[in-house]
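Z., the sequence and structure:
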Amino acid sequence: MTIDRLGHRALGACAAATLVACSQSPAVPNTASLVQRVATSSARADAQGCPLKRCIIVGSLSGYQGKPLSSVLFFARDANGNVSPAGEIQGSKTMLALPAGLAMDSQHNIYVANYNSITVYAAGAEGNVAPTRAISGVKTLLKTPAGIAIDSRGKLYVADNQDNRILVYARDANGDSAPIRVIRGNHTQLYAPWGLAFDSQSNLYVADSEPNNGWITVYAPGADGNTAPVRTIKGSATKLQGPMGLAVDASGYVYVVNSTSVDWEVGVFAPDANDNQAPVSYFSGGYGAFGIGVGDRGIYVTSVGYDDEPFVATFSPGSSDKYGQRKVLRKIEGNKTKLIWPEGIIVR
């Protein structure tokens, strides 16, 4: 599926999906152990420390006629309701332009996938600040970067949604730098890649947002060229339809946002999920769900809102109920939040 980064999408399917989802009562497996897995997943982030006001980081597209400008917004750990961001990166010097994917390296530098570039901001950057690096130019091959992720060696992976490929850059890539590897070709099964994430073994997970079905492909460390995935989560039992946001916790459980599903918006797959395998849990993430992150206090989902206000919701890491619902613990929503079209999210 090709995404119009200016915010214009065909909404009929999404509206129908939401109505159908509300009318169904699917049986949900018992997944209480997810609470412990989420806590374990985020303990490492806590060990590194989380500055109070920069625990939830969200990329927000610009508003009507470019006002307000595109931005990266910072919220406190317990932010809830119609609250102002605790900080933001915004302004003419930032080079932000329709930010989609977000990532953070081991030095807490923030990477942003813009419409046709990747910008990098120093840890603690705030206000109208210039990026420390910007990957942009003909040699980069960037066309419509979406999800981004950084591996254990600091290499940057970018899902190029328009050209059906994954671009890999050196950890210090800057300017008009060519990728050091490109995953592309008929064997890769890439169609419209969006969300990216790594597991603890450095396997790369890709959410492919093909609108009618969609799938998740998994590639071995160092994958290059026209290489086949080592696993593919695909088929009617998966109920994947236009998967977008993707996260993998420390135990290997895969969290994915379904953008056009008639059953649920957020699903959780087992670490070894393969082929036509159903999720172990699923729940409604809200109309217009887009990005996802896993933190020590829950599962965080961004919603672009469409006709409603955009928001960032924190869901309980426990089991979904028999209706495929999960408790909303907190919800950042309202005019003070400055959220316009939130897509990517980092949770610390």
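Residues 1-49 have pLDDT under 50 and may be disordered. The first helix runs from residue 12 to 23.

Let me know what you think.
H.
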